[in-house]
Design a protein that fits this description.
CATH topology of the largest domain: BirA Bifunctional Protein, domain 2
Radius of gyration: 27 Å
Number of domains: 2
Strand order of the largest sheet: 1-10-11-12-15-9-8-4
Order of helices and strands: HHHHEHEHEHEEHEHEEEHEEEHEEEHEE
Largest sheet: 8 strands, mixed
Shape: elongated
Structural class: alpha+beta
Distance between the termini: 52 Å
Number of helices: 12
Strand content: 15-25%
Length: 427
């Protein structure tokens, strides 16, 4: 949620941000709703003040013995009180309409974000590692995994339908090894590991910006107010909902594993093959809570932590700053980490690292108390994948494949697989 004073005093700033993002959020409707809300608030305040003044006047008349005048004036108070009640109801409806409109507005991009309509305007910041070269035509993971007997889409379809996968044997062990490896790496470097619910309430999704904007992309548990998590960002960011944290405790750096569940509404026809875009996938998430003064330093720290996972696994990647038109709804700035996939001959996103500034904090009431005391302030929230586990598995299969159809296991993962150095056909 945006700072009201910003768009009240500088609507042109929000207008430009919406234009740069290609957003259809209705600024004239927001400003009109706000004018109505403030006019009703002013009218109600005036009515209440008048009612209070007349009530005191009635008391004074009774005290001075002017009973008839007091009774006559008191007769008018009932009508005035009913007017106040009606105005309060009208104001409540206007407040709700304003708040619902506010929730449809995306965050304002940071000045360093490239302006553009889509991914074509993204800016490559740096690359790491060299894409592997092969003496043979490298295969995509959907062929490799099936030939190894570790990846099964057909049986997953029997159980759950399209966009699900079954991992067998070494594939299942590799998925589990990646989760543990990532959590161990982050935890050993100072991130606090947290295990969170995989179901969340509506308020938690509103707090991080998934609702109401992305309702069609969520799985709702029928008959309840609970939703399956689309990312660990949702439960972890909301852990301190409604709290005021001491500045001395910041930054807070958390890591968490969850499965993630997404309906992928609107993505039909995209990435239909393999594990790239599934309804269910594993992810290790990094979440930081920071002061406004340090949040962009924290964005670099968070991004570097996700990069370290790729470097430790020896996976080539690049870091890209997303443009205004390609950036997520809640983000003020986002770095995408794109890993090289040899079997597909391209870079693909494996992590998005974002600073949401105070956008989520305002929705979830996340505040801190400055060291020197004074009024509580909204903190800044950051999140990023550290990493998307399924896509990391894809990158290992495609980049470490051998001509005989086997796949080498990165050194860092071998202790998590009982020393296994190579995936070979099974089943």
């Amino acid at each position: 949620m945006l700072n009201r004073e910003l768009w009240r005093q500088h609507p042109e700033t929000l207008e430009k941000a919406l234009r740069d993002r290609g957003s259809e959020a209705n600024l004239p409707a927001l400003l009109a709703a706000d004018r109505r809300f403030r006019a009703l608030q002013a009218e109600l305040d005036a009515k209440k003040a008048e009612l209070n003044r007349k009530s005191k006047e009635v008391g004074a008349l009774f005290a001075s013995g002017k009973k008839e005048e007091a009774l006559a004036l008191r007769e008018t108070l009932g009508a005035a009180s009913r007017e106040v009640d009606a105005l309060e109801q009208e104001l409540a409806a206007a407040r709700k309409a304003l708040e619902e409109l506010e929730l449809t507005f995306p965050n304002i991009p940071h000045p360093s974000v490239p302006v553009g309509p889509d991914a074509s305007a993204n800016r490559v910041e740096r690359t790491w590692g060299e894409p592997p070269r092969f003496s043979f035509a490298p295969k995509p993971h959907w062929d490799l995994g099936c030939e190894l007997g570790i990846l099964d889409f057909e049986r997953a379809g029997k159980v759950a339908g399209a966009r699900f996968a079954v991992l067998w044997g070494q594939g299942a062990a590799l998925e589990r090894a990646l989760v543990t490896f990532m959590l161990d790496l982050h935890r050993q470097r100072g991130w606090r590991e947290v295990y969170v619910p995989f179901l969340v309430k509506r308020d938690a999704l509103v707090g991080t910006g998934q609702l109401p904007k992305f309702a069609a992309d969520l799985f709702h548990v029928e008959g309840t107010e609970l939703f399956l998590v689309p990312t660990a960002e949702v439960p972890v960011t909301n852990l301190h909902r409604g709290e005021i944290l001491p500045e001395e405790s910041l930054p807070l750096r958390y890591c968490a594993y969850t499965p993630c569940f997404r309906a992928e509404a609107g993505s039909y026809g995209r990435d239909v093959r393999g594990l790239i875009r599934q309804h269910q996938f594993d992810k290790v998430e990094l979440v930081h809570l920071a002061t406004p003064e340090t949040s962009y330093q924290e964005l670099e720290v968070l991004t570097g932590e996700a990069e370290l996972v790729l470097q430790t696994l020896g996976l080539p990647y690049r870091v890209v700053t997303l443009s205004t038109g390609d950036m997520g709804f809640a983000a003020a700035k986002t770095y995408d980490l794109e890993v090289w996939l040899a079997g597909q001959g391209c870079y693909r996103e494996i992590s998005s690292c974002s600073n949401c500034e105070d956008f989520q904090a305002r929705r979830a009431e996340l505040k801190f108390r400055p060291k020197g005391g004074g009024k509580a302030q909204y903190l800044h929230t950051l999140n990023g994948s550290g990493l998307a586990v399924g896509r990391t598995l894809i990158a290992i299969l495609e980049n470490y494949q051998q001509e005989d159809g086997s796949v080498l296991v990165p050194e860092a993962l071998r202790p998590y697989l009982g020393g296994l150095a190579r995936l070979t056909p099974e089943g």
